[in-house]
Amino acid sequence: MFDIGFWELLVIALVLLLVMGPERLPEVAKQAAFLIRKARRGMYRLRSEMQSELDATPFGDLDKARQEMTDLKNDIKQFGRDLADSAEKQEVDADGNAEQGESGKGQ
Question: Are the CB atoms for 92 and 100 separated by under 8 Å?
Fold first, then answer.
């Protein structure tokens, strides 16, 4: 989150040790840990409430509808391909029958 490394934490700890002194440092550390824990708990609670609100919205229905439309589009494309293939096959068959009919007339 803050991208603080080991050396930065060490410098902060040394500054706190100099400013607070060794007597008050454990008390300040406990209070800081309590406040951090409280802030994390609040963030987790906020995140879970936001997630539950997002899950309750109709966005899931929109995703489902979008998927159904995509499936329908793919089905229509496939139907068009099948129709074109069958039309080509009928043309080839008709051309083949016409050629056979013409050759049969000549005999």
Answer: no
C-beta separation of 16 from 28 below 8 A: yes
The span from the CA of 5 to the CA of 12, in Å, is 11
Kindly report the pTM of this predicted structure: 0.42
Say how many residues make up the chain. Answer: 107
d(CA 51, CA 37): 21
H/E/C letters for each residue in 17-69? Answer: HHHHHHHHHHHHHHHHHHHHHHHHHHHHHHHHHHHHHHHHCCHHHHHHHHHHH
The amino acid that residue 78 corresponds to is Q
pLDDT of 34 above 80: yes
- Identify whether the C-beta of residue 28 lies closer than 8 Å to the C-beta of residue 20: yes
pLDDT tens by residue, 55-97:
777 766 778 888 999 999 999 999 999 988 888 888 777 776 6
Q: How far apart are CA 30 and CA 15, in angstroms?
A: 17
